[in-house]
Amino acid sequence: MNCTVVQCDLLDQDVDVIVNAWNRNIIPWWLLLPQGVSGAIKKRGGTGPFKEIAKHGPMPLGSAVLTSAAKLPFKGIIHVAGINMLWRASERSIRSSVRNATKVAEENGFQSIAFPLIGAGSGSFDQEKAKEIMIGELQKLESSLEIVVVEFRSR
Known about the structure:
Blueprint: E1 2-6, E2 17-22, H1 36-45, H2 48-54, E3 64-67, E4 76-81, H3 91-107, E5 112-115, H4 127-140, E6 146-150
Parallel strand pairs: 1-6, 2-4, 2-5, 5-6
Antiparallel strand pairs: 3-4
Helix pairs in contact: 3-4
């Protein structure tokens, strides 16, 4: 596994696909005010990916769904259900999100992926602990993906 931790904007990464830490996809996206990475995707890429994710219906905690990247320069966006219905992340939701996003990226032939710190924004999970869990989970995976973990959220 080739994993790098960087401190910059997720949307500025030179990768095939990025991960968006999303919710369980039960509340319609247009009723939400996307923040963090989701807000930056909506602002810079448009609403297309959110309209696509809505078509998938409710997502199990930790699951991952691929959408287009709309106006963003990526081949796609992998949305992970990183927070529960109370808008909280857990070690389990973070680990499952990392595993499932990586699996979706590999199944779709992507070579590189960039993750935000899952659960560390709206999910209210400690950033350092989230990073530690994510790196630990990524190290367990046998993957040929080039992986970037971005410490700071998109603007």
